[in-house]
Design goal:
The chain is mostly beta strands. Helices cover 10% and strands 29% of the residues. Strand 4 and strand 5 form a beta hairpin. Bound molecules: the ligand Nc1nc2c(c(=O)[nH]1)N[C@H]1C(S)=C(S)[C@@H](COP(=O)(O)O)O[C@H]1N2 and molybdenum atom (MO). One of its GO terms (molecular function) is molybdopterin cofactor binding. Keywords: Metal-binding, Molybdenum, Oxidoreductase. It comes from Robiginitalea myxolifaciens.
Length: 387
């Protein structure tokens, strides 16, 4: 076979593999003509996601899991939610990718190549809970604006990288440092090059924690493109919006970072608890920091039926931002009575915790299994969702 023919045939074979079926008249396909079947991107193939995931939006991509898909102790890529605010960067070149540390509170700006970051600093791996600040939004009353996330905008993968603290020590930061803000390579939906889709950050104390990573691996492999390849800030336990994907610049600020989606009402909650639906003045709204205590039943899947007289073994995960989950309870009578069940210690700080239990039902009929987590400061999950 001539080389040209061979290249063409292997090209057709890889197109067929992408389509998942034979291209019957492939021999007639004019060279260079794109296949229509590959133009409308199938998000599940594009991002290697499980077909059971729910696509909430395609511009930008927002995809969430269902509760039963989040049963793994360590979330694999195929069940990890995607929350994008802009367009995923294209044409990433590992040889030229760099991270610049700048801002009012550095002695002098400094730029690192990927290679330098990987070789200069010790590596750490942590399992870190990342929950979108908007997770659960579809149940808010009154309704909140934005994607109507149900329960699946949470993940807990392992992240490997270097400590942001080690990088900042190497750069040299001044006493003025109060906040860090990330900048990234994704682009604004409008196409305007001067606009950033999102640029958030965390107070300097969070930036300097052991577990705050500049990561280059997820679950032991290169970070998948949708989750921030090749470099991502990971600040577990905080709204995942603080964990900047496609990270290429990080500013050490002498003020609370004022990047895109840091100001106005986005990612803010009332500083003090209020009754559901109550109006709160702007100055009484605070930036969300540590995420509140929460839990999710991942087994069985909603709608399970059980033989009469058999106990229901259930399990799931619970997490509490910077805190740990200290106890779990479940109810089969719509919250009238609660009983304890077990909850394990986290794999490391800021990782979610496995709970499990066994419920007995008095007679045949319809039941709902509810669970409730309590954190190490005694805060329990509220029965009524916040407005
Ligand atoms: N550069 C960049 N970083 C980003 C975002 C983004 O749109 N661009 N989205 C943020 C938000 S709002 C969330 S909830 C998480 C989602 O992370 P994931 O898509 O890896 O699950 O990434 C955060 N980091
Ligand atoms: Mo988010």
């Amino acid at each position: 076979m001539k080389r040209r023919q061979f290249v063409r045939r292997s090209g057709l074979a890889s197109l067929a593999a992408l389509l998942g079926t034979e291209i019957v008249y492939g021999a007639n396909l004019p060279e260079g003509l794109p296949l229509l079947g590959l133009q409308d991107p199938d998000p599940f193939k594009l991002f290697d996601k499980d077909p059971g995931m729910t696509v909430l939006n395609d511009k930008p991509w927002n995809i969430e899991a269902k509760a039963h898909l989040l049963d793994d102790a360590i979330t694999p890529n195929k069940f990890m939610f995607i929350r994008n605010n802009g367009k995923i960067p294209e044409g990433i070149d590992l040889n030229t990718w760099s991270l610049t540390i700048d801002g009012e509170a550095v002695q002098a700006p400094k730029t690192y190549s990927l290679e330098a970051l990987k070789s200069r600093f010790p590596r750490y791996t942590y399992q870190l809970t990342l929950e979108c600040g908007g997770n659960g939004r579809s149940e808010f009353n009154p309704p909140a604006k934005g994607n109507q996330w149900t329960v699946g905008a949470v993940s807990c993968a392992t992240w490997t990288g270097v400590r942001l603290r080690d990088i900042l020590e190497d750069v040299g930061i001044t006493d003025e440092a109060v906040y860090i803000g990330y900048h990234a390579a994704d682009t604004h939906l409008s196409g305007a090059p001067e606009l950033e889709p999102i640029s958030r950050g965390v107070p300097i104390a969070k930036a300097l924690q052991d577990e705050t990573l500049v990561a280059f691996q997820m679950n032991g492999k290169d970070i998948p493109l949708a989750h921030g390849f090749p470099l991502r800030l990971v600040a577990g336990g905080w709204p995942a919006s603080a964990s900047g994907k496609w990270l290429n610049r990080l500013s050490v600020r002498n003020i609370v970072h004022d990047g895109e989606k840091m100001t106005g009402s986005s990612y803010r909650v009332p500083c003090e608890p209020v009754a559901p639906g109550e109006k709160v003045a702007n100055e009484d709204m605070c930036i969300i920091e540590s995420m509140p205590v929460k839990s999710l039943i991942t087994y069985p899947k909603t709608g399970a039926t059980l033989p009469l007289g058999k106990a229901l073994n259930f399990r799931g995960h619970a997490w509490a931002g910077e805190l740990t989950v200290k106890s779990m309870e479940y109810s089969i009578d719509f919250g009238a009575t609660w009983q304890g069940c077990s909850v394990k210690a986290p794999a490391n700080r800021l990782a979610w915790q496995r709970f499990q239990g066994s419920a007995q039902f008095p007679k045949k009929g319809y039941y709902e299994l509810w669970v409730r987590a309590t954190d190490s400061q005694g805060n329990a999950q509220p029965m009524v969702l916040p407005g």
